[in-house]
Amino acid sequence: MSDDIVVRQMLVEDLDFVVEIENSNTATGWTKRQFQHVLDCSKVLIIDQQIIGFIVISTTLDQSELQNIAIHKNYQHLGYGEILLRYGINGLAQAVRQLFLEVRVTNFTAIRLYQKIGFTQVSVRRDYYPAVLGREDAIVMSLQTP
Ligand SMILES: CC(C)(COP(=O)(O)OP(=O)(O)OC[C@H]1O[C@@H](n2cnc3c(N)ncnc32)[C@H](O)[C@@H]1OP(=O)(O)O)[C@@H](O)C(=O)NCCC(=O)NCCS
Description:
Elements: E1 5-9, H1 15-25, H2 32-37, E2 42-47, E3 50-60, E4 63-71, H3 80-90, E5 98-104, H4 108-117, E6 120-130, E7 135-144
Parallel strand pairs: 4-5
Antiparallel strand pairs: 1-2, 2-3, 3-4, 5-7, 6-7
Bound molecules: coenzyme A.
């Protein structure tokens, strides 16, 4: 893992890199326009002056939602996803009591990361996501924030 790690607000000029990261992970990810709408609540992770990840957390009153998080395919499983998620959680407004997220039932890597950080399952949303064959369930998870 690099020592040169920076997390900062996502800017318009980051969007091409951000979409490239999204596309490195999924063919059905967010578009540039979708990221543009959530710039205010989005951050990028930079190592050695290169953007390799992003996180999007929106907040309404005392509840936040992890809308998206990804690390570039070439930099996964090196600890960066955990660093970025912990950074996002630490940066939540003081009023926030709970952080929610939805994750595909088959996304075992992400589920393990969330469990490691302390998220627990709240419910299941049947057929929530489009899948290669039909639809796929989402697990709804939440984390109580101090
Ligand atoms: C999910 C994601 C953000 C995790 O980022 P990462 O940098 O790869 O994860 P880290 O290296 O920080 O690993 C943190 C924890 O995740 C879990 N994890 C990571 N890689 C894993 C693997 N190959 N298998 C199982 N669990 C894994 C482990 O719990 C790990 O902790 P540990 O190493 O102490 O066991 C990243 O894999 C990603 O971008 N995936 C594609 C996009 C995505 O699915 N986003 C989530 C949408 S809900």
